[in-house]
Write a structure and sequence with these properties.
With 474 residues, this protein is of the alpha+beta class. It has 3 domains: 176 residues, Beta-Lactamase; 88 residues, Orthogonal Bundle (Helix Hairpins), CATH 1.10.287.130; 152 residues, Histidine kinase-like ATPase, C-terminal domain (Heat Shock Protein 90), CATH 3.30.565.10. The protein has 10 helices and 14 strands. The strands form 4 sheets. It has a 5-stranded antiparallel β-sheet. The chain has a 5-stranded mixed β-sheet with strand order 9-11-12-14-13, covered by helices on one side. Strands 1-2 form a two-stranded antiparallel ribbon. Helix 4 packs parallel to helix 5 and helix 9 packs antiparallel against helix 10. The longest helix has 57 residues. The radius of gyration is 49 Å and the shape is rod-shaped. It starts with a helix and ends in a 5-residue tail after the last strand. The mean pLDDT is 78.
């Protein structure tokens, strides 16, 4: 199972358990909470009715007193109330009054008059000066038929002369309890849904960050390292930096091995030529031979010096982690490139063209000029007499595309995959090869600019080198 799914399941399980625990407590507290609130209302009502019923009890005829008249009017008066979505259409109170001996002298339902209620908890406890309440089922076989009764004493000069009990069926509270439970369950379901969305978003973010690191690691494995990704988290950023540090250490070791091998290989030819020339000069040949082989020594020495300088420039560039990028004007840059190569262009009769649709780009000007100069040098070397080279600067959305197109023979198919390798070079018209570091330098410049370099053969012949920079024009 993927780590993201495990995290999501674990997170959802924790939230679900917490939600169940909270819902369980709330739901379990709803029913007793509603009943406690109802009991408080009943005791207030009973105390009020006890004060009103004192005169009825003292009169000796409570069945025709003010309390009895009020209940008769209440039962004959229709009413309707909507209480938070619960419709109430009838009086649900049951009130009875007993004398000081617990005998019922008034019953709002008219069924219990004359009965002895002195043993019921509400009456028995109230007559003894305590708080009296009880809950009794109308139908012993139906627990939902229970009625809650709360009693209050009827006082005369602080003496208890009777008891008023007010009862309300527990079934009357059922709609309130069910509605509250239903709302709690809906709220719990919504909570779980929101938690699932939050968890999915969190897992998506973690997977996205891990995927960035995976792509970065894969690019290192394929020797085409991408820029260090921004993972947006201090912990993952430390992991990314650790991977980058490991990459640099491993690449540093391979880098030295490859450079020593390549340098040894590249220096063999000029050293052999210098040695051969020296051996001939040692034999004191004629002056014209001395001149020819002395010039050969100087040429080979210049070749080695150029190779070493390019290696040092490549090494310095590859050890740079970042660059300072400023606004670069394209037109003056292209003019400098043409001016510095004007002799080589005129020697081969090459027509040089510029097509500038983008005026500015954000980059390191020196590095960009060196990279474009390397591409232009390659184009000059492989363009035949009377050919054409075109420099273009254009925009593609928020990217800058700088390209150099020649009319040469193009790149052979066998060389396409190796064209950016260090020290890999194709022979020029004169049969000579370059150091093979020019395109590697350009590729490193593109990497530092978070862009890329592409060389493509044109259908009409020649090569187009495109340097794409991930930087918007200003």
């Amino acid at each position: 199972m993927r780590i993201g799914m495990r995290l999501l399941l674990g997170y959802f399980l924790i939230v679900a358990i917490a939600a169940w625990f909270v819902l369980f407590i709330f739901v379990e507290e709803i029913k007793p909470g509603v009943r406690r609130a109802t009991e408080g209302t009943l005791i207030d009502t009973a105390t009020l009715l006890a004060a009103l019923a004192r005169e009825d009890l003292q009169s000796g005829d409570p069945e025709h007193g003010r309390l009895a008249q009020a209940f008769n009017e209440l039962q004959n008066r229709p009413f309707r109330a909507n209480i938070g979505g619960i419709n109430k259409v009838r009086n649900e109170y049951h009130v009875y009054m007993t004398d000081e001996n617990g005998i019922v002298v008034f019953d709002s339902a008219g069924k219990a008059i004359g009965k002895d209620y002195s043993r019921w908890n509400d009456v028995w406890l109230t007559l003894r000066g305590k708080y009296g309440a009880r809950s009794t089922a109308r139908d012993p076989s139906d627990p939902d038929s229970s009625v809650m009764y709360v009693a209050a004493p009827v006082l005369e000069n602080r003496r208890i002369i009777g008891v008023i009990s007010v009862g309300k069926p527990n079934s009357a509270m059922a709609p309130v309890i069910k509605r509250s439970e239903r709302r709690m369950l809906w709220a719990g379901g919504a909570l779980l849904g929101i938690a699932l969305l939050v968890g999915a978003g969190m897992v998506w973010w973690i997977n996205r960050s891990i995927s960035k690191l995976s792509r970065y690691a894969d690019s290192v494995t394929q020797n085409n390292a991408l820029p260090l990704p921004d993972v947006g988290s201090s912990e993952l950023r430390k992991l990314a930096q650790a991977l980058e540090s490991m990459r640099l250490r491993l690449e540093g070791k391979n880098y030295i091995e490859q450079y020593v091998y390549a340098l040894t290989h590249e220096l063999k030819s000029p050293l052999a030529a210098i040695r051969g020339a020296a051996e001939i000069l040692k034999e004191l040949p004629p002056p014209e031979v001395v001149t020819r082989f002395s010039e050969n020594i100087l040429v080979q020495n210049a070749r080695m010096q150029s190779l070493v300088e390019k290696l040092l420039a490549q090494a310095r560039l590859e050890n740079r982690a970042d660059i300072a990028q400023l606004t670069v004007n394209i037109e003056p840059l292209f003019a400098r490139l043409a001016r510095s190569r004007s002799v080589a262009l005129e020697a081969k009769g090459i027509t040089f063209q510029c097509d500038i649709s983008a005026s500015e780009v954000t980059a390191d000007e020196d590095l960009l000029e060196q990279a474009l100069g390397n591409l232009l040098d390659n184009a000059i070397d492989f363009t035949p007499q009377g050919g054409t080279i075109t420099l273009r600067a254009e925009t593609q959305g928020d990217e800058a595309w700088l390209s150099i197109t020649d009319t040469g023979s193009g790149i052979p198919d066998y060389a396409l995959e190796r064209i950016f390798e260090r020290f890999y070079s194709l022979p020029r018209e004169n049969g000579q090869k370059s150091s093979g570091l020019g395109l590697a330098f350009v590729q490193e410049v593109a990497r530092l600019h978070q862009g890329d370099i592409r060389l493509t053969n044109q259908p009409e012949g020649g090569v187009r080198a495109t340097l794409r920079l991930h930087r918007p024009f200003t």
